[in-house]
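Budget justification note: compute hours in this period were largely spent on complex prediction jobs such as the one shown. Inputs:
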Amino acid sequence: MSKASRIVEQLRRQILDGDRAPGTRLGQESLAAEFTASRMPIREALRALEAEGLVTIKAHSGAWVSALHQEEFEQCYKLREVVEPMVIGESVPLLSGAQIDQIGELADLIDNTGGAADLRSFLRLDREFHLLSYAGATYPFLTDLVTRLWNMTQPYRRELVRFMPAESFQATCAEHHLIVDALRSRDIDAAQTLVRLHIRRTRITLSRYGEVLWS
Amino acid sequence: MSKASRIVEQLRRQILDGDRAPGTRLGQESLAAEFTASRMPIREALRALEAEGLVTIKAHSGAWVSALHQEEFEQCYKLREVVEPMVIGESVPLLSGAQIDQIGELADLIDNTGGAADLRSFLRLDREFHLLSYAGATYPFLTDLVTRLWNMTQPYRRELVRFMPAESFQATCAEHHLIVDALRSRDIDAAQTLVRLHIRRTRITLSRYGEVLWS
DNA sequence: GATCAGGAGATTGTATCCAATCATCAGGAT
DNA sequence: ATCCTGATGATTGGATACAATCTCCTGATC
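Corresponding output:
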């Protein structure tokens, strides 16, 4: 595996984990020093992350961790409301029983995080829960798009979930279990509707606290 | 504008125009000689085109113009059947009257190409017709996806359209004009249905000749 | 005859160096 | 006081040189 691709993975991990906040400058020289490499693999890594939407590059100027305006953030969620039901519809008939069991276990684990109480675990498990439920889907383009949308919004989700009230967290957990039930009974329609409503409710809940974050 | 981005545009154009067929090797050294540049901007360009799906890179091995199997080609069309109705639904209410007129003119121009008779013009205009009809859509991610799907399938469309019988070409033209009518009357539902059927019929028509191409 | 090991050649990946471009700030004119 | 202008410093873009890796051919072995 090349040095550039290792740097891509590490940088992506750092951005998603919140170690590098949106708007942070990514200077080639300083990154080269950090990763003990030359600027060349750094440049390739930044280009790759730009293609993923995680990094924004301005010619002859520099690279920054991509930042979203509130409208862009909400547009990502609105797009997810349309695309993810489509993807889970493809996925439901093709998921294995073992996969569905695993998704159910993730739902249980999420219950125990308490949402904002264990933010890091919640974000990681919630992401895993949803993306695994799409594992059966056959359209690589759409699953890539979904992953991109999750990645791009992750830093903001981290900040916004802090404000999420307990009742909203409980709703999230309940919806997760309903989704698992729909998967178990292979009910495509129910799964699609639940996913759409789940994302929609989350968007509306989060947008209430967006004013604080973006103002 | 950087040298790399100029190379991206030229290479993309060459691939879409059929000057570089799928499976063709893209050696860094030879490309550097062609474009009178060093290998460095070439690498950046290849990475960018890889992100667009037009180029496939294998580590330590090389880059090739992306090739699709028949199943992948048809999967692109099936995905278009789902995504493009969504996009045109977003687009219809936001297209300007001037844009719709322009789309109508494109439909007329396509009639005059005679399909396989003037293949180059047909491909260019057909592409322009559809992509312009999506110009009102507000989701950049989805329009990017649609453009990617068009680009990736273009080399194969070029080959397959050669076999397209006259009746199929006439059907295509008729459907185009029906779509224009739907745009003019701002009929979202009609536009979505027509686009879906248009893509579906094209896929079925083309797949009939795929055996020849891929066997 | 088929398969696998090994080495030569070619090609990609990385480091270093130089050139081009942009941001910043001082200085002067309006 | 504000805006424009120009020089300086920092940073990215590109070229060249070297290292790492793969491919393919050769030849030996089963």
